């Protein structure tokens, strides 16, 4: 039985589950929409300590590995990133406190925990079949909600690498002490995480630009704390007979995403035209290229389709940072001839919203998606329904 903190998935999706059961019975136990298990793999690993090495050859080799992984995989993981395992443990604990609050409180309370209005989301409101279902809940939090206005200047121009944060103790927690949840979550480990990944994102973006022959201030000028955000994710156990998406297949609508995930697993990506499961690494952060970087690089760096699968017994937590520009920022390919047209982030986001609206078709025949707004021609890359992840 679901707890008072869980979204009403079974009630909301009852018709979809019944429809799928009927389809399986009619087809002697087979449903083409159900998902096949994916082979597990380990993403390329980048040791960020190499960027501080006194040997220039080692530093340049590390940068080349970052660029190569972004071209060939669109995903990689980094270690020695400046966040200790203690902070990761605290992040998990703080997320549990937030998501354990009653569902009614999360959905109806204005400025819940002082997060921006409308930050809480769950499920997939426009789903018309099991394949489009997202069995998850999330908080979308602007970085300034975490850091406050004082964080803007300190993040904007910092490019140095970082040492692990000092461990701090904190008081025990009782289940519904909302004010204390807000205080510890927003002012302790989350600040440390947000500060570190913000700097890391800028560093990686600059490296990827440099490996294309560009040394510009584009990312520092356009991707600021008030345009970037964190997303806290929880994927409840899904005890069904079907392979259910925790998060729909999608590509990210940003420049870069930095992900911390727990050890439950479930993240999958497309590699060589097949789904592969990402093996959790307790010491690593996962980096992936977003749609905007693919356009900015003229297709050199790949924005790869990925998804999250549910676990029948275990809940999964993750926290993602999205490097986004302001709405007025113009994205223009840095190489000629360009396979993309020039577009603003505002224009792009409008297309994302239009694609996710209830009137959008979700059939297998649909082959256009958010990227058609920026591509002169779509060649060899198609997808079905695109979920709005941001």
Automatic annotation (TrEMBL):
<feature type="domain" description="Fe2OG dioxygenase">
    <location>
        <begin position="224"/>
        <end position="325"/>
    </location>
</feature>
<dbReference type="GO" id="GO:0016491">
    <property type="term" value="F:oxidoreductase activity"/>
</dbReference>
<dbReference type="InterPro" id="IPR026992">
    <property type="entry name" value="DIOX_N"/>
</dbReference>
<dbReference type="InterPro" id="IPR044861">
    <property type="entry name" value="IPNS-like_FE2OG_OXY"/>
</dbReference>
<protein>
    <recommendedName>
        <fullName>Fe2OG dioxygenase domain-containing protein</fullName>
    </recommendedName>
</protein>
<dbReference type="Pfam" id="PF14226">
    <property type="entry name" value="DIOX_N"/>
</dbReference>
<dbReference type="InterPro" id="IPR027443">
    <property type="entry name" value="IPNS-like_sf"/>
</dbReference>
<dbReference type="Pfam" id="PF03171">
    <property type="entry name" value="2OG-FeII_Oxy"/>
</dbReference>
<comment type="similarity">
    <text>Belongs to the iron/ascorbate-dependent oxidoreductase family.</text>
</comment>
<dbReference type="GO" id="GO:0046872">
    <property type="term" value="F:metal ion binding"/>
</dbReference>
<keyword id="KW-0560">Oxidoreductase</keyword>
<keyword id="KW-0479">Metal-binding</keyword>
<dbReference type="InterPro" id="IPR050231">
    <property type="entry name" value="Iron_ascorbate_oxido_reductase"/>
</dbReference>
<keyword id="KW-0408">Iron</keyword>
<dbReference type="InterPro" id="IPR005123">
    <property type="entry name" value="Oxoglu/Fe-dep_dioxygenase_dom"/>
</dbReference>
């Amino acid at each position: 039985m679901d707890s008072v903190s869980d979204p009403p998935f079974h009630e909301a999706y009852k018709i979809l589950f019944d429809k799928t059961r009927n389809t399986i019975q009619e087809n002697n136990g087979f449903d083409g929409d159900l998902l096949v298990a994916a082979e597990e793999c380990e993403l390329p690993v980048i040791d960020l300590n190499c960027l501080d090495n006194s040997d220039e050859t080692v530093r340049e080799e590390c940068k080349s590995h970052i660029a190569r992984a972004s071209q060939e995989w669109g995903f990689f993981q980094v270690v020695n990133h400046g966040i200790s395992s203690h902070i990761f443990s605290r992040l998990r604990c703080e997320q549990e406190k937030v998501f354990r609050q009653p569902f009614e409180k999360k959905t109806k309370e204005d400025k819940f925990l002082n997060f921006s209005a409308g930050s809480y989301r769950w499920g997939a409101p426009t789903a018309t079949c099991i394949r489009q279902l997202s069995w998850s809940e999330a908080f979308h939090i602007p970085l300034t909600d975490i850091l406050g206005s004082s964080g803007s200047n300190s993040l904007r121009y910092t490019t140095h690498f970082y040492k692990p944060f000092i461990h701090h103790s904190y008081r025990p927690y009782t289940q519904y002490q909302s004010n204390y949840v807000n205080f510890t979550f927003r002012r302790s480990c989350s600040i440390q995480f947000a500060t570190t990944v913000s700097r890391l994102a800028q560093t990686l973006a600059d490296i990827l630009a440099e490996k294309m022959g560009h040394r510009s201030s584009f990312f520092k000028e356009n991707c600021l704390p008030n345009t970037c955000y964190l997303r806290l994710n929880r994927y409840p156990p899904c005890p069904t007979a079907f392979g259910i998406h925790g998060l729909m297949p999608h590509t990210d609508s940003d420049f870069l995403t930095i992900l911390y995930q727990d050890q439950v697993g479930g993240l999958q990506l497309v590699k060589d035209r097949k789904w592969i499961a990402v093996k959790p690494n307790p010491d690593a952060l996962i980096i992936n290229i977003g749609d905007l970087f693919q356009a900015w690089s003229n297709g050199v760096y790949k924005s790869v389709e990925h998804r999250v699968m549910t676990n029948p017994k275990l809940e999964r937590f993750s926290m993602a940072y999205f490097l986004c520009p302001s709405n007025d920022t113009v994205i223009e390919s840095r190489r000629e001839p360009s396979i993309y047209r020039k577009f603003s982030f505002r224009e792009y986001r409008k297309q994302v919203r239009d694609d996710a609206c209830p009137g959008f078709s979700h059939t297998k025949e649909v082959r256009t998606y958010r990227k058609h707004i920026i591509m002169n021609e779509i060649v060899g890359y198609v997808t079905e329904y695109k979920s709005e992840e941001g």
